[in-house]
Design goal:
Blueprint lengths: L1 E5 L13 E21 L1 H8 L5 E2 L3 E3 L2 E8 L10 E8 L8 E10 L5 E8 L4 E3 L5 E9 H5 L8 E21 L8 H11 L5 E5 L2 E5 L1 H7 L1 H8 L9 E4 L4 H13 L10 H14 L3 H12 L7 H10 L3 H10 L3 H8 L2 H9 L1 H11 L4
Parallel strand pairs: 12-14
Antiparallel strand pairs: 1-2, 2-11, 3-5, 4-5, 5-6, 6-10, 7-8, 7-9, 7-11, 12-13
Helix pairs in contact: 3-6, 4-5, 6-7, 7-8, 8-10, 9-10, 12-13
Pfam families: BACK_BPM_SPOP, BTB, MATH_2
GO biological process, one term: protein ubiquitination
Pathway: Protein modification; protein ubiquitination
Length: about 375
């Protein structure tokens, strides 16, 4: 168990001469602890309990408080069937007790480390009280994704919970004269794109037209900088045709360029569009967008998508995505299923060195 201390102060000045009341955090102490829940007999536990039923871990202590984990192998309610639901519960009968805590739940690998794609954490403190004794994640891990991974060994699943209990927080009154809002630059640039005010270049993509601003594109992408302000022929063109790209993908890329955020994508189309958006990000040197897409694709890997995803990762130098594919294929049953597909044969023919690397990783010689 360990403790940490932090201190901060706030000082703000008003525009209308009127003082606003606020408070500053003077000091905060946090106590941390961990507990590992082992589900031995994962398959039979899931089958026998079913949806809406849970098992409790043994009680453990963190920060002077008792806690336990509630594990639902097939979701806590009907709408969460097919998911593991998991909650941290404060084990106390005193109605006056309130505890502020953050926590992390994560599936463990063989080395006892969290598996990032099967981990969730709270970003702020939750208050555990008589009204809300437990907090957690109703859709913690997809059973399908977990069961297709290599993290259930000998029918045993290990989940660790790290708890950070906040204690000893004190505040003091300060005078707040100006309330500074968060940046809304992305909204202004988003409006600039949607309104096309001052647009000085047009792109034709698969028959659709998109108005944009040369300076914005050049500031965000070294490729657009070269195309629009360098010696390339596009410099003098008012309408530029973009080939080998869907209009929806180009539109999503423009949205990111102007707002630094991903647009909303229909769940049904998410894998395909994210796949093509990663290609576009690599093509136009948008490294942050490329990493966002890579991270999202890591969450979509299963036996039906792993071959396509592995080929994409190899072609565009996505090492994290490649490792995620290898991780899925560590399972002998998954590897056998994938090797029987036509896609695997095509990948073997087009990139034999990648298949050689794969087999060396997942099926090392004794």
């Amino acid at each position: 168990m360990s403790s940490t201390n932090a201190a901060s102060a706030v000082g703000i000045i008003s525009s209308d001469g009127e003082a606003l009341t606020t408070s500053a955090i003077v000091a905060a102490e946090a106590m941390t602890g961990s507990h590992v829940l082992q589900i031995k007999g994962y398959s039979i536990t899931t089958k026998e309990l079913g949806n809406g039923k849970h098992i409790k871990s043994s009680t453990f202590s963190v920060g002077g408080h008792r806690w336990y984990i509630r594990y639902y192998p097939d979701g806590n309610v009907l709408e969460n069937a097919g998911w593991i639901s998991i909650y941290l519960q404060h084990d106390h009968t005193d109605a006056a007790v309130e505890v502020n805590a953050r926590f992390v739940f994560g599936v463990l690998d063989d080395s006892g480390k969290y598996v990032p794609m099967f981990s969730s954490e709270t970003s702020v403190d939750d208050t555990f009280s008589s009204k809300n004794r437990c907090w957690g994640f109703s859709k913690f891990v997809s059973r399908k994704a977990l069961e297709e991974s290599s993290y259930i060994r000998d029918d045993c699943l290990k989940i660790r919970c790290d708890v950070i209990v906040s204690k000893g927080i004190s505040t003091e009154a300060t005078m707040q004269f100006v309330l500074v809002p968060p940046s809304n630059m992305h909204r202004h640039f988003g409006s600039l794109l949607s309104g096309a005010v001052g647009a000085d270049v047009t792109f034709e993509v698969a028959g659709d037209m998109f108005a944009a601003h040369r300076c914005v594109l050049a500031a965000r992408s070294s490729v657009f900088m070269a195309e629009l302000f360098g010696p390339m022929k596009e410099k003098a063109m008012n309408c530029i045709e973009i080939k080998d790209m869907e209009a929806s993908v180009f539109e999503a890329m423009l949205h990111f360029i102007y707002t630094d955020t991903m647009p909303d994508i229909d769940q049904e189309d998410a894998f395909v569009i994210t796949h093509h958006l990663l290609v576009a990000a690599d093509r136009y040197d948008l490294e942050r967008l490329k990493l966002i897409c890579e991270d999202k694709l890591c969450m979509c890997i299963d036996t039906s998508t792993v071959v396509t995803t592995l080929a994409l990762a190899e072609r565009h130098g996505c090492q994290g995505l490649k490792k995620a594919c290898f991780e899925l294929l560590k399972s002998p049953s998954h590897l056998k299923t994938v090797m029987a597909t036509e896609g695997f044969d095509l990948l073997l023919a087009s990139c034999p060195s990648l298949i050689k690397e794969l087999l060396a990783k997942v099926a090392p010689c004794p």
